Structure formats: structure tokens, C-alpha cells
From TrEMBL:
Residues 1-61 are annotated as: Disordered. Residues 1-10, 51-61 have a biased composition (Basic and acidic residues). This is YjzC family protein. It comes from the Bacteria.
Length: 61
């Protein structure tokens, strides 16, 4: 799990599930899915951030 926090509007560094965190880093019980290179969406409330919790697993063919 990645401990780095990302702001809404930041480019998604890695495709996967991101949890919404509060101002002190605690989980808000909400997750979004975002793909690499796309901007992260606005959070439900001000001063919230995103943390990568489940990166997308790519199967090599």
C-alpha cells in the first residue's frame, strides 16, 4: 500500500483503487477507481486527499 497522498486534480500515478482520506490521513470509507495519467476527481469535501490502496493488476499475455 502506498502512503503518499494525492490531491484532486493530480495526474493518477498508477491505475487502481484510491481511498478518500481526511485532513489527518484517516480513511473516509469511500474509494474511487482512476487510470494512470488521468486527473483524480474532486473529493466530496474540502481538504481531503487520495491514497492508493489497490493497484490494478495487469496480466502479461
Amino acid at each position: 500500500m502506498d502512503d503518499k497522498l494525492y490531491k484532486p486534480g493530480d495526474k493518477t500515478p498508477t491505475s487502481g483503487q484510491y481511498e478518500v482520506t481526511g485532513p489527518r490521513g484517516g480513511s473516509k470509507g469511500h474509494e474511487i477507481t482512476s487510470t494512470q495519467g488521468n486527473p483524480l476527481p474532486p473529493t466530496p469535501e474540502a481538504n481531503q486527499r487520495y491514497r492508493l490502496v489497490d493497484p490494478t493488476k495487469h496480466k502479461n499475455q
